[in-house]
Amino acid sequence: MWGYDKKLQYPVNIKNPNPQLAKFIISQYGGPDGELAASLRYLSQRFSMPTEITKATLNDIGTEELGHLEMIGTMVNQLTRGVSPEGLRKAGLGDYYTDHGVSIYPQNAAGNPFTASYIGVKGDPITDLYEDMAAEQKARSTYEYLIDLSDDPDVTDILKFLREREVVHFQRFGEALRSVQEKLAQKKFYMNNLHTCPNNNTPPSCGCQNVPIISDCGCQNNN
Amino acid sequence: MTEQQAYLQELMALDFKLYDLHLYLNTHPFDGEILEIYQDLAKEAKSTREKYEAMYGPLKCENAATDCEWTWIKNPWPWEGMV
User: What is the ipTM of this complex?
Assistant: First the structure.
């Protein structure tokens, strides 16, 4: 269950409208390496994560990404505030204005709507965590390109904060991946995350001896 | 149902009542009668939450730092159910 704090993770107070920049930055709202994709990717993958470390990491970073989505929406909103339809048109946002007015719609910089094909959810913790690390690097690159394009220090400052978060997430995902790999390298392990209790009980209360090491059964007899 | 489940469900019911009133108050921000009910319920939910967390571990990460362990990550997570 989620709650809402009536604040942003990092302040967004952009003084000057700049629809041209808004057109680029919206890619981090609904583009392939954007915050919506990131959040859905991690929050969906967490259901098949095998350990406490990986579950917590995906849950919490997936949640933080929702906060970043809010920051990006705020930036686009402020960058287009008070801009006339003519101004939007000159910035290449005439098509956007036609379909969405001055609201925020999840699309990439070129105008393609968000699609779930931007995310991978494979159900294998190693595969998914590698995907997540790659995703963080792609998001970092995107923020760097946006910083290259930015001609407003207010905007650049926020982009630098978001870029830094991608670096931190990459680090945490790397640690989570390593923790799974270490678990798999232990003397006795099963490669699947399915409970194989003969009594058909389900984790975590089962207590039978017949459990995969990376399950949540909670029994102590699996080393 | 275990004692923990029963306690958690009590808190969930309280939080849900609060939230439903929250939505109502968004569109009726000056309804004094409901404001009073909300205040009472909020107190009850807060103390119920504190008792639950003391017995069964944190629901919010702010309460997860003990002297020697970050208990936030501990199983079970909500999607796993409680057996």
Answer: 0.91
